[in-house]
Amino acid sequence: MRAKPQSFDRVLSSMCTEPHPDAREAALQFLATNPGDPGTYPTVAALEDDAITALGEITGLEEPAGYIASGGTEANIQAVRIARERVNTPTPNVVLPESGHFSFRKAADLLGIELRIVPTDENHRVDIDAVSESIDEDTALVVGVAGTTEYGRVDPIPELARIAHDAGALCHVDAAWGGFVLPFTDYQWNFSHARIDTMTIDPHKMGQAAVPAGGLLVREAALLDELAVDTPYLETTAQATLTGTRSGAGVASTVAAFEALWPDGYAAQYERSQANADWLAATLEGLGYDVVEPTLPLVAAAVPTGTFDALRSKGWRISRTGNGELRVVCMPHVTRSMLESFVDDLAAPTVRERSSAPL
Ligand code: 0PR
Questions:
Q1: Mean of the pLDDT values across residues 331-358?
Q2: All residues at 6 or more sequence positions from 128 whose CB lies less than 8 Å from its CB, including other chains
Q3: Residue boundaries of the structural domains of the chain
Q4: Which residue among 11, 12, 15 has the greatest number of ligand 1 atoms within 8 angstroms of its CB, and so is best to mutate?
Q5: Whether the predicted model's global pTM rises above the 0.85 cut
Q6: How many C-beta neighbours within 10 Å does residue 83 have?
Q7: pLDDT at 163
Q8: How many angstroms separate the alpha carbon of residue 15 from the centre of ligand 1?
Q9: Cα(72) to centroid of ligand 1, in Å?
Q10: Model confidence pLDDT, tens digit, residues 20-70
Q11: Which CATH architecture best describes the domain 21-261?
Q12: What residues does ligand 1 touch, defined as CB less than 6 Å away?
């Protein structure tokens, strides 16, 4: 095969990034292992315990349990599945902020559960009163997002957890993207801050592990039992994962990235990414665009369609929010000089000229 993967040097839209060199090496070493069969592959199975212990340390979970999933989609589906198994009704529902990731739509479809979508406020965080109004005795799960896909916002997690438990429902936090930056902020988002039951936190996003490495964490191991099916012909008796055969690459690279970066490397990366986001936001504002304040390392700005298209045709990989704003995710591979060259292109007359078209 002659194809080579494309470089990251113009990628501003991705929530994945170059793995840390140690994570890359570990992924290659464990590529052919299958943590789905711990009886045959005990080394990678033991590494998965280390990976979950690591994720537990990052998220304030005292007795960590969970597994390394294929990504945030699987982890979110499994969290909904746990909640559906726990609730005693034929017509369960899940209360989800409108900022929730589309993987919850897949979960609802697959699991035959009603999604109750709740609006966000002017700051793109979930409207708590609307959550309370949406909950009833059939509510299995209340979801909060800690680092939303479009604006990087953190919902009021402690309030959501309280409301969920008062109603006898579980509370899930989707920190798929935010989980590796939030430890260095003042947000209340993790297991030690609130009585949340399950969490998605993806090493293959800000964690700098290789794809595929998502994380599902549960407050107590019994919650995982809701997912377990018997595995009669394997040496182990039950399996809680959604996929059967899984690559050990994600597991090994999660541990390698953690050993290389926790906590100082991740902290430094957060500082760099946030400084880049703040710089880009200020620069775009200086150019006259409306910018959504980057409270985490993700910038959204109202850039006209013509400008957006001109930047894409210059090779910039950029994406849009549902409202049509330009969205730039300041991942570890996004450097200040990349952003400077992006802004140079944005400010070039041929690109800016097209800005007359309204958004
Ligand atoms: N939860 C949140 C908050 C997310 O942002 C995402 C993905 C998921 C769950 C689902 O995770 P997986 O994609 O790992 O299943 N957010 C990005 C998105 O869908 C993912 C992404 C990654 C997009 C790389 C582009 C890309 O190049 O927009």
A1: 85
A2: 156, 159, 160, 163
A3: 21-261, 264-356
A4: 15
A5: yes
A6: 29
A7: 98
A8: 6
A9: 7
A10: 999 999 999 999 999 999 999 999 999 999 999 999 999 999 999 999 999
A11: 3-Layer(aba) Sandwich (3.40)
A12: 14-16, 71-73, 76, 101, 103, 145, 149, 174, 176-177, 202, 214
Contact (Cβ atoms closer than 8 angstroms) between residue 74 and residue 242: yes
Task: Using most ligand atoms within 8 A of CB, pick from 125, 149, 153, 157 the residue to mutate for ligand 1.
Answer: 149
Name the closest-CA residue to atom 12, ligand 1: 72
Task: Say which residues have a Cβ less than 8 Å from residue 169's Cβ, sequence separation at least 6.
Answer: 83, 87, 95, 135, 139, 140, 141, 142
- Average pLDDT (247-267) is 98
Ligand 1 atom, smallest distance to 202 CA = 14
SS3 316: coil
CATH superfamily of 264-356: Aspartate Aminotransferase, domain 1 (3.90.1150.10)
Burial of 109 (0-12, 13-18, 19+ CB in 10 A): exposed
Nearest CA-CA partner of 334 in 5, 11, 6: 11
93: helix, coil or strand? strand
- Residue at token pair 């979508």: 117
Residues 213 and 73: beta-carbon distance below 8 Å: no
Q: What is the mean pLDDT of residues 176-200?
A: 98
Structure tokens at 308: 């957006």
